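Hey, I'm writing a tutorial for new members on how sequence and structure tokens pair up, and I'd like a real worked example in the thread rather than a made-up one. If someone can provide the structure for the chain below, I'll link this post from the tutorial.
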Amino acid sequence: MYEYKVVELREGLIGGKMSGDKLERILNDHAGKGWQLKSITSTEVKGRVGPGGVDGILVTFERQR
């Protein structure tokens, strides 16, 4: 049996543009907790204020229960 975790990352959360170094730290942090990367999907993520969204990514992790 598996469980899944989806993390939304907006450009503003990871430094104005998609930073490879920061994404790598997030992946390694989750890997240290037993999560395995399942997929990365580009998407529009809702911003904190007002309608519309900003470019972002959805990172999906999987691990055995």
